[in-house]
Every structure is written in structure tokens, then in C-alpha cells.
# Entry
Amino acid sequence: MDPEVDLQQADDSPPAETTGPPPRMTRQQILTLISMASVNFSSMICYSILGPFFPNEAEKKGASQTVIGLIFGCYAVCNLIGSLIMGRYIVQIGAKFMLVAGLFVSSGCTIVFGLLNRVPAGAAFISLCFIVRSVDAFGFAAAMTSTFAMTGKIFPNNVATVLGSLEVFTGLGLILGPPLGGLLYQSFGYEVPFLLLGCLLLIMVPFNIYVLPSIEAEPSKDSFFPLLTKGKIILICCVIFTLSAGLGFLDATLSLFAMEKFNLSPGYVGLILLGLSLPYCLASPLIGYITDKYPSTRRWFMVSGGTATAFGFFMLGPVPFLHIQSQLWLVVFMLGVIGFSLGMTAIPTFPEIITCAYEQGYEEGLSTLGMVSGLFGAFWSSGMFYGPVVGGLITQHLNFEWAAAVQGGMPLLGAFLLAVYYLCHPQQQQQSVRKDSRATDESTPLLTE
# Structure
């Protein structure tokens, strides 16, 4: 079987409107889905293991809350730069090579990060944390940019459905990472979580070399900048920013808050984080299916999801002026609200930006998908930098409750501005969505043969 032939057929064939059952996916197409799912799962489980114990370990090594936030934040800055570069040159580098190389770099950095406890406390430890996390971020950016672009290329009529399904594995990585990392840290110390999961990521490298198809495409002369001249795209990117800022804030601050407020061990903190990742894991495929079947719902999912996210952050502390006592069950419940609303808001954003790009005359191909993927990754990474750094500063100088409330104001503002835009452009938005998704119905196969 020639995977390039399969992909060419999938890309060029018009959507079939049939009354019979949709064609079955080929073996290569199924293996591609498995491959991308493995990338999402293994990458996110390695990323998420830090939350329950690293802030506490870094404090022992002389890092302040602000420095811990910067360590988390530098990952996001390098991810931002890497996403823009990889998205722009994905065709020249090659989507498959970019993904495999990114996995290899990320696995090596995860293993090295597990050895940093042997470094003396103080400047040496902090400097190496910054260096290793920065290099790891470039590897992660390469893998994720390639994954998003390949998804859009191979599944052009079902982007949200496939992304939502893949986000199940992202959610599983987020679910298993914190409790597994916390329990391994409690049982075996600092090194074992990183060494074990870094080796798991390394195993994914030969697997993906074998199963991933090669995608041939012509470079495009288009750039990111015309996309950023459109109000709708800017507002959607701001929504992406607010969501990732919230997650970055929780990564850097929630574990210390839970340990101090409720006297919990790192293992139990990992279990608390299930309240965030499990609802997101369950919501993503459902939201993806609905927004592909009914594209006009994307905008209101983003608006209502942003509003619900804001409510979750306001009540997470809760915000001090409400005079509600903080309780463990309330924290877990609000994390669940944030997780579900994150799925409502995040899943529709990528296909919506793709729609906007095609409306602006961008060529339908891997080059445009790479740029959209890079743009998505850049704004996501910007939020992941802002959240830990600013959240860490507010937490250090005020408290977690006020920091969470400030964080909640951002998705509320983003949802409000997006709602105003959609209310002012109802017909234009509706027509463009219908035009882009005229063939996206229940009978459209994920891939046509």
C-alpha cells in the first residue's frame, strides 16, 4: 500500500453524499490515527507529571514562587517561537520528520530533567531547569504542530471530530500524568517519574517512524500576518490565549495551594487534578462531533465555554469578596467545570481559524494548515507563559484566591468580545460557515478512498 496515494485520494476526492454506509478507513489511515493518538498521549503525560511535586522540589532547591512560574513560563515562550518557525517551514522540513524529531528531542529532555536533582541548589539548578525545559519546548512544538497540520490535511471535512477524538488521548495523558507522577515521586523519589516516562516517549519514536505516512506538498508564499488583520481571527486567538493562561496558572500554583490549604501529599494533589482533565477528556469528542455536524454552533460553544471557564476560576478560590470558605470538594468540582468548559471552547477554535484562512484566499494544503497550526500553538504558548508568570506573581504578593479571580476575568472578557463580534456579524458568519462546511454531514466519511 502506498500511503502517499491514500493521502492524495483523501485530499482530492470530493465529499461523497451517499445514503449507504461510509467507506471503511484503510489500514494506513487507521495506523495514522493510532500514531497521532500515541503522540498526544505520550507527550502530555510527560508534560503533566511536573504539577504535583516539582514546585515543592524546586522550593527546596532555592527557587521562589516567581522563579517557579518563570520555569513553567520559559517552556511556553520557546514553544511559541518553535510553533511559529515549525508552522512556517513544515513543508520544507517535512511533517513526518518534524514529528519524529520532536518526539526524540522531548524524550531526551524528559530523561535529563529527571537527573537535575543531583545538581547543587541555587543558580546551577535553576539555570539547568531553564535550559532543559526550553529545549524540550522546541521538541514539543515540532511534534504538536505537525500533528495538528497532518490532522487537517488527512481529515479536511472532519477536523473537529478527529481533533476531539485525539483530545481524549491528550486528556488521558493529563489524567494519568499528575497522579502517576505524584505516586512515583512518593514511592521512588524525584528521578523515577521522569526516567520512566521519558523512556515511554522514546519508544514512540520508532513506532511513529514505521506507521506515519509521508506527505508531499508544495511550499506556499503566504504568511501569518494577513491572518492577524482579521478581527474574528484575532478574537479567536485571544480566546485560545485565555484558556492556556488558565492551565498554565494551575500548573504553577494549584499544587502548592492544595498542599498548604488542605495538607495534602503530592499523590493526592495528582488525584485532585483528575477533576480538571477527566471532564475535558470526556467533553472533547462530543464537542468535536457536534461542531462538525453543526458548524454554526462553534461560535456559541466558544462564547458559553469561556463564560463557564470564568465562573470556574472565580469559584476555585473562591474569590475573597464572596466570603465563601474554601473546601476541597468545591475545588475539585470547579476544576471539573473548568475542564469541561475548556473542551467546549478549545475544540472549535482550530477548524474555525482554518475556515477563516480559506475565506481569505489561502491555498488548501499542508502549508496553510501548518501556518494555522503554528498560529494556534503560538497563542496557546503565549498564554502558557503568561499564566504561570503573572499568576505566580499575584499568588506571591497576594494569595491564590485573588490570582484565580484575576485569571477568571480573562476568559470572561474574551467570551464577551467574541459574542459582541458574532452578534454584529450574524449573516456574514453564518454564510461563510455554510459555504465551508456544505459537505460536512453525518454521512461524510472521515476519509474517502
About this structure: Residues 1-22, 429-449 have pLDDT under 50 and may be disordered. The two ends are 12 Å apart (CA to CA). The CA atoms of residues 354 and 438 lie 15 Å apart.
